[in-house]
Amino acid sequence: MLSCDLALQRRGLALEVALDVPSGSCLALAGPSGAGKTSVLLAIAGLLARVRGRISCAGRPWLDSEQRLDLAPERRRCGVVFQDYALFPQLTACENVAFGLHDLPRPQRRARALELLERFEIASLSDVRPRELSGGERQRVALARALAPRPQALLLDEPLSALDARTRAGAVRQLATV
Q1: Phi and psi torsions of 54, nearest 5°
Q2: Would you tell me how many other CB atoms lie within 10 Å of the CB of residue 64?
Q3: Per the confidence metrics, is the pTM higher than 0.85?
């Protein structure tokens, strides 16, 4: 279960959000551009400063501002796919996916990355750098990278927007198996 009860200010916008997402469930935030959807995801991931409230996942607190607890993003066990994908341009697709797998030996990192690239039907592009990939291919690399460390929560910011209908259906099937 992902639980949030938080408040934040960003660019003159005051947000207050309370939500509970049971394990295995999906929640979509909908609203007009500029309403704060991305800010909520960034706050949950620990990527925004000055967030007040509580966030917990699987019973483990990630943020409790009253207790002065604020886990670093890398300790929150959540995968994030950003609107701009945030891929490292100097790394190949495979290296991007394997980037967050520091706890695994190098051969296992590569194997896990290739497994995910295969699931998203882009294993043949494993040695290609992001600038040589299409928008949809970059988006699938970002999805694979978010899934690589087996996160407890997956935060997706418009994760399928660059995919054609057939590829989107396949990506949805892969995400449904997580």
Answers
A1: -135, 140
A2: 15
A3: yes
